[in-house]
Amino acid sequence: MALPAPLHGVIPPVCTPLDRHGEVDTASLTRLVRHLLDGGVHGLFALGSTSEVAYLTDAQRGIALETVRTAAAGRVPVLAGVIDTTTPRVLDHARRAADLGADALVATAPFYTRTHPREIAAHFRHLRAAVDLPLVAYDIPLAVHTKLAPELVRELAEDGTLAGLKDSSGDDGALRRLLTALGGRTGRHRGPAPGFAVLTGSELTVDAALLAGADGVVPGLGNVDPAAYVRLYDAARAGHWERAAAEQERLVTLFSMVDAGPESEMSRSSSALGAFKAALRLLGVTQRGSTAFPQRPLSEEAVAEVARHLRTAGLLPAQQD
């Protein structure tokens, strides 16, 4: 389907359910996509960080993307992560994603080796020229060790290389500078890059990002409670900022589930992804809560903590005495 310009709204990075053999559970993934669509999301981001893209083989990536695209059935745009270390590898993923019917591509800067901003710009321009799909830059310096400078993003937005930015840098000042450079809150789409989308990946400060002029959010927690993020977005779009803040505060509390796994036993990624997947199993959306090896699984106690957060948020019924 045609990508809206600008891309906007709630676009969750879709979790990748796994079976007991560690393969993509396509039946559970199909149910998850339906869960997200029923929640009113505006797009789907397959093969992002929350999708555990770094752990998936090329074959598994293809299965996951094809399953998401088929389940979406053209109702919303499907963005495909084409994340890898170097331009040739990313280009292989991009061509495969295009063949599988993705509506847009999402790529980081090259990583493992250090790159100069001019090399990063050449990377994005080469991808855009080689595969005729809208290209969204993914700014996640925690993973790739490179921060996309606002000046570089603006340059690539203005020349048409990039259709948007997913900002997971956590640098709210840099994001605000970019939004201001692109026309500010009231002139964002009358500025130098009118169709360029700015999407925040900071799911705990969505109301603030939307107030500053961002176009939407890519929330990992949106897998669990997509309808709440849609309510937040709708309230912000209508100028009901107190209502938006109330939804945000509820989601901040729910997000605390990501710390269910003890820090002494597992990485914060294992804990967060394990919590999202445990929540989806508890909600009956997916069959299992398994994360990709070698991530540590949540203990029964940690899963019980996730369930407590779901009950507090009204997503699971209260326990009976």
Report what the structure shows.
This protein is an alpha/beta fold and 321 residues long. The protein has 13 helices and eight strands. Strands 1-8-7-6-5-4-3-2 form an eight-stranded parallel sheet. Helix 2 (58-72) links the parallel strand 2 (44-46) and strand 3 (78-81). Helix 9 (206-212) packs parallel to helix 10. The longest helix has 15 residues, at 58-72. It is globular, with a radius of gyration of 19 Å. The model has no long low-confidence stretch (mean pLDDT 96). The active site is at residues 138, 166. Keywords: Lyase, Schiff base. Pyruvate binds at residues 50, 218.
CATH topology category name: TIM Barrel
In the predicted model, the low-confidence regions spanning at least 5 consecutive residues are none
Structural class by SSE content: alpha/beta
User: Biggest sheet: strands, sense, closure?
Assistant: 8 strands, parallel
The CATH class is Alpha Beta
Organism: Streptomyces sioyaensis
Family: Belongs to the DapA family.
Active site: 138, 166
Binding site for pyruvate: 50, 218
